[in-house]
């Protein structure tokens, strides 16, 4: 239990001081940081039991971190895009082949049925576009590909929306950070900007939860 609490504390601190931690990672691992970043994006999108990783804020901070040339923005973009597409593909495959087994094994620990149900409602409303839209919503971007797999969505159709969603998500946050990271105002207020991104990115999930609860109460 203490290990879990320590992990949560570190994750919160990582998000709130993401630029400091990125500098530490680069100092400790050099170019090996690229492998770490690939793993983070892959795990958030590919492993349904890890929806809590800081995708949006990390991408923006990485863009800003690349503005001074510390990281190669072109290579970083291609690397993280690959991680996002591969992650969703793995998540979809897991849901398609082992969905119910995974839900049964991890329910109540790393997985909650209510999160899966929220993703199902979102998927039912938006169809294939849910794969794209969910990229911009924490938790949903982890569960929607899994739900698409459980529902046996056509694989070719999923691949199309997977690539499109990954391209829009990675490009928008990474290059927004790269552009704004050059501006003195944003350099001096990076923490507030990161917090703003977190709050805005959580809005779709909060709205979804409220709608789901309303549907449950009305029923």
Explain how this protein is built.
The protein is an all-alpha fold and 219 residues long. The protein has eleven helices and no strands. The chain has helices at residues 2-16, 18-29, 33-46, 55-66, 73-106, 113-126, 129-133, 140-150, 155-180, 184-188, 190-218.
Characteristics:
single chain, 219 residues, mainly alpha, 0% strand, disordered C terminus
In short:
81% of the residues lie in helices and 0% in strands. The chain is mainly α and 219 residues long.
Into which percentage range does the β-strand content fall?
under 5%
What is the count of helical runs? 11
User: How would you spell out the order of helices and strands?
Assistant: HHHHHHHHHHH
Count of DSSP strands: 0
Q: Which regions are unreliable across 5 or more consecutive residues at pLDDT < 50?
A: 215-219
How confident overall, as mean pLDDT?
77
For the termini, the CA-CA separation is 37 Å
Largest sheet: none
Structural class: mainly alpha
What coarse outline follows from CA principal-axis ratios? elongated
Give the % helix: over 70%
**What value does the Rg take, in angstroms?**
17 Å
């Amino acid at each position: 239990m203490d290990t879990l609490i320590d992990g949560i504390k570190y994750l919160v601190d990582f998000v709130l001081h993401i630029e400091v931690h990125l500098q530490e990672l680069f100092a400790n691992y050099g170019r090996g940081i690229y492998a770490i970043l690939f793993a983070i994006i892959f795990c958030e999108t590919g492993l349904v039991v890890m929806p809590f990783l800081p995708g949006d804020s990390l991408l923006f901070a990485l863009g800003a971190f690349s503005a001074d040339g510390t990281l190669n923005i072109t290579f970083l973009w291609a690397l993280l895009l690959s991680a996002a597409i591969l992650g969703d593909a793995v998540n979809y495959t897991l849901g398609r082949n082992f969905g119910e087994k995974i839900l049964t094994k991890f329910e109540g620990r790393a997985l909650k049925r209510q999160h899966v149900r929220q993703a199902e409602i979102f998927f039912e409303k938006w169809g294939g576009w849910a794969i794209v839209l969910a990229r911009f919503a924490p938790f949903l971007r982890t569960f929607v590909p899994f739900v698409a797999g459980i529902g046996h969505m056509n694989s070719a159709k999923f691949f199309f929306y997977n690539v499109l969603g990954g391209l829009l998500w990675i490009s928008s946050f990474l290059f927004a950070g790269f552009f704004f990271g050059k501006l003195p105002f944003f350099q001096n207020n990076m923490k507030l900007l990161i917090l703003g991104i977190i709050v805005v990115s959580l809005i779709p999930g909060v709205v979804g939860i409220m709608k789901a609860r309303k549907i449950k109460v009305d029923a």
